[in-house]
Amino acid sequence: MWARSSPILFGRSHKAVSADADAIIHAALRDEPTHLIAATWDNTIEQLTRFASGDGLEPWNIEVNPWNR
Asked: What phi and psi, each to the nearest 5 degrees, are found at residue 25?
């Protein structure tokens, strides 16, 4: 999706291609509702099982500090 060879970028930009996104999403919801629900469930379970307490709680002294403005 973000690579230079992405089909989205062949359309010049994400914004230019987004005009077609609604039609694609609606067609997918209409034609494959069961598949989309199953994929949503599978992705949700995967994210919940991958989450670990403490993720991202390390200090970012270089990027973020009390003196950044």
From this structure: -65, -45
